[in-house]
Amino acid sequence: PAGRITAPLCGDGTPTTCTPDLQLVEQASLQTDNLLDLIEEAGSPFTSDVFNGSRTRSFKGTLYFLNTREACLDFDLALVPGTAPYFEAVLQCKIDLAVEYFFTLEQALVDADARGNLFSPSLNRLLRDHSRALSMIKTGQWVKGIDRLEDLQTKVLNGDWTVDGRNDPGNVLMRLANLIWRTKQLQIAEAALLAL
């Protein structure tokens, strides 16, 4: 049909020559033997670049399923795939999902503090930086959002943590890396959409 786009997927840094369909970007899915170990209490999608938490150990019984995709199911089925309105709806869906992942990151920080595994910086300091990054994502300021997420990542890396079997700092770092990856995908997809 007229208006359909057949360019390759985004991701190579050339948004004017790619399809901004974030539903086709492959990811990994993380799941544990005990789903109550995860904030989501279910398997969760992550970038395939994010595997074990980067401190010492991951949750016991952690499984990764590669080459999965996260589909948007709640938008108008009358939208024609490959058209600008379709890509706009997918982009908004993925922004909404990124916001949800910010809330699970926030919960990971709160839980780590409640377990006594976070010593410094303070939970309030990390949550303030988290909120600043989230506000950039909600308003589509991708570069500032990435900068603020990377700043938060540095604070977590340089923080003072207890690393037990739950590996709270590794869990937080994994979620931060996932949000940085997602934000970069949103930036590329939006640029490709604007170039249509």
Protein described:
The chain is mostly helical. It has 4 helices and 5 strands; from the N terminus they run E-E-E-H-E-H-H-E-H. It has helices spanning 84-114, 123-138, 142-157, 168-194; strands spanning 27-32, 44-46, 62-68, 118-120, 160-161. The strands form 2 sheets. A 3-stranded antiparallel sheet has the order 2-1-3, with no helix packed on it. Helix 2 (123-138) packs antiparallel against helix 3. The chain is globular and about 50 Å long. The model is unreliable at 1-8 (pLDDT under 50).
Poorly predicted spans: 1-8
Helical stretch count? 4
By secondary-structure content and strand pairing, the structural class works out as mainly alpha
Helical content stands at 40-55%
Topology as H/E string?
EEEHEHHEH
Strand content: 5-15%
Q: What is the radius of gyration? A: 18 Å
What's the shape? Answer: globular
- Lateral strand order in the biggest sheet: 2-1-3
Oligomer: single chain
Summarize model confidence as the mean pLDDT.
81
Largest sheet: 3 strands, antiparallel
The overall strand count is: 5
User: What is the terminal separation in angstroms?
Assistant: 15 Å
Give a nutshell description of this structure.
With 196 residues, the chain is mainly alpha-helical. It is built from four helices and five strands.
Secondary-structure map:
Layout: E1 27-32, E2 44-46, E3 62-68, H1 84-114, E4 118-120, H2 123-138, H3 142-157, E5 160-161, H4 168-194
Antiparallel strand pairs: 1-2, 1-3, 4-5
Helix pairs in contact: 1-2, 1-4, 2-3, 3-4
Features of this protein?
single chain; mainly alpha; 5 strands; disordered N terminus; 3-stranded antiparallel beta sheet; two-stranded antiparallel ribbon; globular; 46% helix; 4 helices; 196 residues
